[in-house]
Fold:
Amino acid sequence: MRIPLARISLTLCISAIVAGCHSVDPDSVSTDRGEDLELAADSEMVPGRVPASTTLAGMLAPHSLHTADVTGVVTAAARVFDLRKLRAGQPWRFERTLDGCVRHLEYEVDAERFLRVSARANEAHGFDASVIPYDVRQTTMTVAGIIDSHNPSLFAAMAAEGETPELPMALAAIFGGEVDFNSDLQRGNGFGLVVEKVYREGRFARYGTVQAAELRNGGRRLLAIRYAPPGAAFSYYDTDGKSLKRFFLRSPLRFEPQVTSRFSLARFHPVLHRMRAHLGVDYRAPVGAPVVAVASGVVTSAGRRGGAGNMVSIRHPSGYESSYLHLSAITRGVRPGAHVAQGQMVGRVGATGLATGPHLDYRLARNGKFINPLLEHRRMPPGEPIRAEHMGAFSAVRDAALARFEQEPAARRVAERTGK
Structure:
């Protein structure tokens, strides 16, 4: 920071130090010389996230601030915001001078608003506060790319287009009943999405809804159109109006894991060193990878189960029950009697119980008898299609989405490179 000496009054600077926590406006001071002076920073920005079970005063207390400043900040903030509603995990930050004064503080109330507390320029320990809306804007964009030698995974291909990991996860959720994202994707596959993006203060904040998606996989062009039939919730349909939602997802893991052991009535157990039935499918995956429910249902058990380690079991319609073994953690709220939705996270991959390394043992039973999950998933029929009387409205939404893909240069480039 370089400030002309002509704009610095030593008398005023000394007065400010003696007076305590005052802000000095450099535009309000002057001197007779025009040389530049290199000034050391006299403050620092302290970022953080709100801890659990705390108060604003408690958040400021460890930072060696003037007690009167802490009181002033809390008093000003309480005039415009209920401080009992501080939420754990929310970002906050404040600027403190080197002698322990607060210049300003900001706390993110939610995605739309933030609390700002600022020191008054000419009043020691005096503060003003307000809750200010963020400048939030939403736009609809088309994202398209190809999995190739330079970007050999969906995550890498999305990142090459400037996208964050949330977008490939959204694509997997849409086509999870059609494609096993753990094994079916390969080089040369292309993708495209018409997606809403939300910007806050001019910077990307989050994704909105995916309005349409395409996946070019193994010679197929899969298309998904987001549509809500009258009286029903939004879902995704193919171009003929058939639902893409299946009774079971193709896999309880979204990406990267490999099938290391299949369903078998006689397998050599790597820990017990003897032949034993393996009544599920083992997926190798890193510790902490999210495990999701393959179908909606009710939790029948969740906890430690001997050699299975941490395990969650879910009862589904038509006599099905799915189980997820060796978890490192079980998601909060997943307990017996709780309802879970298809695709909802129920735990994380681990190596608890009889396990030689991190993996997920996924099991599926019907009417009390274990069955091969991979075979059963392939047999599952699609969900309800769009009814004939609603096809006209659906077709208009579909045609608009297809036109968007055809007009977008990036999507056309994907189509040309995949040769489909």
